[in-house]
Amino acid sequence: MSDPVFAEPHKFPILIVDDDRLQRSVLEANLKSAGYDAVSAENGKEALEIFRKGYYPIVMTDWIMPEMSGLELCREIRKDDSGRYTYIIILTSLNSKNDIIAGLEAGADEYLVKPPHQAEITSRLKTARRILDLELSQQRYIETIKNLSLVDPVTGVFSRRYMDERIHQEIKRAYRYERSLSVIIVGINLFEQTVVTHGHYAGDLISKSCADSLVEAVRKDVDWVARYGQDSFIAIMPETDSAGAMIVAKRLRIRIASLVMTMYDKELKVTASFGVAGFTASQQKLGFTADILLDKADQNLCLAIEEGGNTIKGVQMG
Fold this sequence. Notes:
Layout: E1 14-17, H1 21-33, E2 38-41, H2 44-53, E3 58-62, H3 70-78, E4 87-92, H4 97-105, E5 110-113, H5 118-149, H6 160-177, E6 180-188, H7 191-198, H8 200-217, E7 224-229, E8 232-238, H9 242-257, E9 261-263, E10 266-268, E11 272-280, H10 290-306, E12 312-317
Parallel strand pairs: 1-2, 1-3, 3-4, 4-5, 11-12
Antiparallel strand pairs: 6-8, 6-11, 7-8, 9-10
Helix pairs in contact: 2-3, 7-8, 8-9
């Protein structure tokens, strides 16, 4: 089903670009009579300024103009990174194959030979609307798939993919404001043995319970939790040094160890090990990376597991 936003012509504001005032006025009047909202510019440079201030899904531009030609305008519009597609129609008195190819290679979707007939304009705009409708549907589908991939389906916390993308932003933010940042990696002890003994449903139950405990223990809208591996999670804690993260980890250790999960007629209990690492940007050189922070937390988690699990190891870096 077509999106209602794209059901009517007036939902497609059109940017008209032509240095000929009469041609520009006639085209604008024709478009408005067909139900389209139209805005005009007299050259490519002015049009680009207008385009960057608003949203114009359709641009109809003359080829030869002062300041900036239609081909140059096409190339600049195609550099737009807003994620919204713009359908570009070149208006030209040039009609050779080489000219048409040059226009299409510059980024135009279609061309019209001047002066265009009203019926031809209407037909081209219907095609533009159909293409834009398909483009929107594709973008929504991609966005839906992306959103699904950012959340772990078993526990409801963020996925490893999301963590990999966002932690780099947290590092940059810590440096920008010269603040602290810490991570806690939580490893569920004997997770694989539990799954072998009690099945995958037991593993999912334990994972969900541990994830819920993490979410409840950290600060809402400041800290965030992600699935780190099959048997591990990570809590990212901005504005927190490793000493503060150690306090949270101690609270988590007790909380997880006190969990009692019921599966049918069986009770499941679990413990976890914790690796903590943090840094303060004002005390650390700019070359500090997410990989360094995660690697140190991982090492500390391994040390905690080697000591028998249900324990915490941590360090402040810098």
